[in-house]
């Protein structure tokens, strides 16, 4: 009961943190505009910005993540006859990171974005017990240090706006150690490393003092994150990969 109470406190704290980050981004945009809603300058802001070979910045992200699963061939065995299904469900989290953007050509950049990401993934195990459907939800909370290495292909700048596409790979390692003191048979165990492909798009908006970009990015996990330690939650599964859709707010 005590662990459940603590989890609820952490869950509430995460929601408050995400709302605070959204408010920060909106407030920053409001400061960059006049009360009338127009930009300070009608001419191009930061006209020589893209000629510099290196830019720094920071990024705030809000994501929806879920596990993609593959059933074990033993799923239909007599030992699992009461288990009806395992259903992933979406959960929300957030991330904070830094940006190092290298200019490679007029319309091509290389971007490295080390970040700390707070994940929560859920799997609903549905059993038939006493003629009724019972759901046992497994919640996997983790904090990862991830380093996306992305190529950024930019369109022609039009005034103070420029569209772009991004794509690349991301490597991640869990920053928090596993709790080995608990009963490992009572929870789903996952690996502490991951590798994923990422694609996305965004819009660069040039303000007088900085560049802002909202960006949407999809991440498809390549590694099987299911732990090799078997228990009642890993037994019906053969593979677990992580998929994430993230809204980023980039400030450079």
Looking at this protein, list some descriptive labels.
54% strand, 1 helix, mainly beta, 10 strands, single chain, 252 residues, Porin family protein, signal, Beta-barrel_OMP_2, disordered N terminus, Porin
List the helices and strands and how they pair.
Elements: H1 2-31, E1 54-71, E2 83-89, E3 91-105, E4 108-112, E5 115-129, E6 132-154, E7 161-174, E8 193-206, E9 211-221, E10 237-251
Antiparallel strand pairs: 1-3, 1-10, 2-5, 3-4, 3-5, 4-6, 5-6, 6-7, 7-8, 8-9, 9-10
Structural features, described:
With 252 residues, the chain is mainly beta. The protein has a single domain, classed as Porin. It has 1 helix and 10 strands. The protein has one helix at residues 2-31, and strands at 54-71, 83-89, 91-105, 108-112, 115-129, 132-154, 161-174, 193-206, 211-221, 237-251. Residues 1-10 and 28-41 have low confidence and may be disordered. It comes from Roseihalotalea indica. Keywords: Signal. Residues 47-226 form the Outer membrane protein beta-barrel domain.
Q: What is the helical fraction, as a range of percent? A: 10-25%
Major sheet characteristics: 10 strands, antiparallel
CATH class: Mainly Beta
Are there runs of 5+ residues with pLDDT below 50, and where?
1-10, 28-41
Domain Outer membrane protein beta-barrel: 47-226
Keywords: Signal
Protein name: Porin family protein
Signal peptide: 1-32
In short:
By secondary structure, the chain is mostly beta strands. The chain contains 1 helix and 10 strands.
């Amino acid at each position: 009961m005590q662990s459940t109470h603590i989890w609820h406190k952490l869950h509430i704290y995460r929601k408050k943190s995400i709302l605070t980050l959204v408010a920060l981004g909106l407030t920053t945009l409001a400061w960059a505009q006049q009360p009338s809603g127009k930009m300070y300058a009608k001419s191009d802001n930061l006209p020589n910005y893209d000629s510099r070979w290196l830019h720094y910045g920071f990024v705030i992200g809000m994501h929806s993540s879920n596990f993609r699963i593959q059933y074990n061939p033993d799923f239909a065995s007599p030992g699992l006859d009461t288990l009806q299904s395992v259903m992933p469900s979406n959960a929300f989290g957030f991330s904070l990171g830094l940006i190092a953007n290298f200019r490679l050509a007029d319309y091509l950049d290389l971007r490295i974005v080390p970040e700390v990401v707070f994940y929560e993934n859920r799997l609903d195990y549905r059993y038939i017990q006493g003629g009724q459907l019972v759901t046992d939800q497994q919640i996997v909370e983790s904090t990862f240090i991830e380093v996306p290495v992305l190529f950024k292909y930019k369109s022609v700048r039009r005034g103070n706006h420029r569209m772009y596409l991004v794509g690349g790979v991301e490597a991640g390692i869990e920053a928090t150690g596993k709790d080995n003191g608990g009963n490992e048979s009572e929870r789903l165990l996952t690996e502490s490393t991951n590798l994923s492909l990422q694609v996305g798009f965004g819009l660069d908006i040039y303000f007088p003092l900085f560049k802002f970009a909202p960006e949407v990015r999809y991440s498809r996990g390549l590694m099987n994150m299911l732990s090799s330690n078997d228990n009642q939650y890993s037994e019906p599964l053969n593979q677990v990969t992580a998929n994430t859709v993230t809204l980023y707010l980039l400030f450079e």
